[in-house]
Amino acid sequence: MINCLARRDIELQRATFLNSTPETLSQKQRDSTQTIETKRRQLIEKRDKVLDIIHDIEHKLGIKPEERWLPSSEAWAVAAEKVRLRGYRKCLDHLESLVVSRIFELSEVNMPQRGELYTPKRHHFRY
């Protein structure tokens, strides 16, 4: 995923093209060209660093390059389904905890250890 984002950023920088002629070339355009080129180089360096980190992790985990998941592989589809269901299950767990806490609150109201059963308070007014 990170590699795809870095690749997209690099392609966007590469696609930026300035059409300059000697008549239209000014110091400002030279500065913007240099800025674009600097951004492109920085993006390539970031991508290379991320790839080095990925390669180190793969080496530590014993993952060979031919064992990497592809979007068409079955393992990829299983993992994608698990990620998709994660949000649903998280919400379901939260709802379950709310229901259980509400049940406990309601059961505390009718506990015999607390003295009398819950009765609404009656106000007595003197005339």
Structure in words:
The chain has helices at 2-15, 27-61, 74-109. It is mainly α and 127 residues long. It folds into two domains: 1-68; 70-111. 0% of the residues are buried.
Helix content: 55-70%
The helix-and-strand class reads mainly alpha
How many separate helices? 3
Q: Low-confidence stretches at least 5 residues in length (pLDDT < 50)? A: none
- Topology pattern, helix = H, strand = E: HHH
- Coarse shape: elongated
Mean pLDDT: 77
State the domain count. 2
Number of strands: 0
For the terminal residues, how far apart are their CA atoms? 78 Å
Rg computed from alpha carbons, rounded to a whole number of angstroms: 32 Å
Largest sheet, strands/sense/barrel: none
Strand content: under 5%
Topology, please?
Elements lengths: L1 H14 L11 H35 L12 H36 L18
Helix pairs in contact: 1-2
What descriptors fit this protein?
elongated, mainly alpha, 127 residues
What does this entry show, briefly?
It contains 3 helices and no strands.
